[in-house]
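Handover notes (outgoing to incoming on-call)

Open items:
1. Delta-6 desaturase-like protein: sequence verified, structure written out, both below. Nothing else pending on this one.
2. Nothing else urgent.
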Amino acid sequence: MAPRSRSHGPADAPQPSQQFATGFRRYPTNRDALNKSAVSWMEGKRVDDDVGPYWRVHDKIYDLEKFIDKHPGGKDWLLTTRGTDITEAFESSHISASAEKILSKYYLKDAATPRVSPFTFHDDGFFRTFKRKVRPVLQKVGRGPDWRMILIQDGLALAFVALTMAAVLRESFLAAALGGVVLAMMSMCAHNFFHQKDNWRMYLFDLTLFSSHDWRISHALSHHLFTNTIYDFEISVLEPFFEFLPKANKTWLQRYGSYFYSVALFPVFFYLEALKKWKMIAFGEQKMRPENTLPICELAVFCAFVSSSWTGLKLWLVMHCACSVWFSFIGLTAAHHHPDIYHEGDAMRDNPDWGLCQLDAVRDRMEVTGNLFLVSTTFGDHSLHHLLPTVDHSKLEYLYPAFFETCEEFNIPFQFVRQWELVCGKYLQLANVTPNTRSPGYKEKTKKLI
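Delta-6 desaturase-like protein structure tokens:
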């Protein structure tokens, strides 16, 4: 649909940095801050949602204080989101109707203002219809990981340990680099686990220089729920080097420079994020968590069992450099960037059903779908994962019949694309300065799985 006009109350005053109209009622607080972080994103959302010490779901305010320790997914989810509108998170995380019954026990009052988010969750809409269709399927197969998923995740962890030992014992930079690639694959697999209830495998993600706790915010609560919009942290944190939104004032360097400076940024991207995290911890802007020490423990192992600390440091740096390159390349070409894919500034569809808007901002690769190893290590089955992020990757394949049936019911010609299209699409979107004036949708007929 045509971009929505903004309301003009004091709280919704236009921001100078806003380049185009948007479906959201507010431009995100802290979006253009110099030091962007998961913590600053969440603090900004608390300001924008303005629900005090409570939680908002749709147009009602709830006091979940007494439910925090009872939350089946772990208390961190509720502690982190206190003071925000969690409508999208609640809807996408809870598939059964029982969650709404539990939520009703903690009702406090009706919200006094409209939601900042434009997305809807009508009972007869695409997303809730899809959830109803998958409930009996998930009751039969379950939502958690099966033996194949455990084998892949634990097998990658063992391979990482073996390559680390080889790098240390032989002082092999090749083994360190291969270990970094396996570490990246293991962390992408572990991302499947940090979307779920608290479990030890999610901390395998912290063996990189990233933080699973921070990524639960920046990825699960921001990117997944507000994909390719101004509230998507994974869009804003890359700016101004990677400008994926179709802004008219992009410089030549922003449009075409990434062909060259990606080579310099990808190897150090993880280091930059780690430095930012440790700076925030040092200055008391972020709490130290036990899992934050895992990369330091890695470094200690490298330095303790090689001929010199300098050699150990170099091996450790090579490992995380390889990890950063592999993760960054896959992450930016997996699903979200092409001129045919919705980005904030493009015309939204007339029906802002959250599920349909998710499909507008995601594509799936035909080379990956159907292979659980590739799905779990390259962010595969991405549309289903975005719609139902707490369902384990190993169970998504069982949901395709219900998904295709729902797409047909709502006249959505779901599309699979080639990986190469998304690799090229990343650069095409970076160069793009012209927003789509038509609702994005899907422009080709359905391509069957091969």
